Predict the structure.
Amino acid sequence: MSDRLDLPQGTLDLLILKTLAPGPQHGWAISQRLQQVSKDAVEVQQGSLYPALHRLERRGLVKTEWGASDNNRRAKYYQLTRAGRKQLEVERDNWQRLAAVMAAVLETS
């Protein structure tokens, strides 16, 4: 049995927004940070990550800029917009309320 988790629909966007809150990151760094923070329970594949980043960009929640990565390669950096920061707060609050409701229901006998 794997210790990795399947993310519920819509959760990846929230995780990406949260990962970008401290500052701009390129795609590989975002996936590595999620894996690190989750203690390897979450591994985001490129086939999921980049469509999610493009979706967030189309919605105006992230903006992009080209720059050099740590190994001096050209990379697209993603950064939260003001709307992205606001959306992060909304989604985080919604997630916390949902988690509390789920915990209450699951603890009921």
Q: What stands out?
A: The chain has four helices and three strands. The chain has a mean pLDDT of 92.
